[in-house]
Amino acid sequence: MSGLLIERPLPHGGRLVERVVTDKKVARKMIQGCPTYEIKPTLHYETGVPVRNVYREIMSICYGFFSPVEGSMKQAEVERVLKERRLLNEWIFPYPLVFDISKDDLNKLGVTVGDRLCLTLKGKPFAILDIEEIYEIDPEELAYKTFGDPETNPEVVQQKFDKKHPGWVIYRSHQPYVLAGKYTIINEPKLKPPFDRFWFPPRKAREEFDKRGWRTVINHQTRNVPHVGHEFLMKCAAFTGDVEPCHGILVNAVIGVKRRGDYPDEAIVEGHEAVNKGGYIKPERHLVSIVLWDMRYGNPLESLLHGIIRQNMGCTHHMFGRDHAAVGEYYDKFATQILWTKGIPSFGFPAPPTEVPYGLKIRPQNMREFSYCPTCKEMAYSETCGHKREKLSGSFLRGMVAEGVQPPSIIMRPEVYKVVVKWWKKFGYPFCNEKYVINKEKELEVDLEDL
Amino acid sequence: MAYFMVVLLDDSRMAKLRGTGLEDNIKYMFGGELRLLEVEVSEELKDKILAEFETARVDSRGAITDVPVAFMRELFNQVVEKKSLGPEVVEGVLAKVDEIKEMAAKESEYLPPPDIETE
Ligand SMILES: [Zn+2]
Question: Are A411 and B33 inside 8 Å of each other by CB?
Answer without folding.
Answer: yes
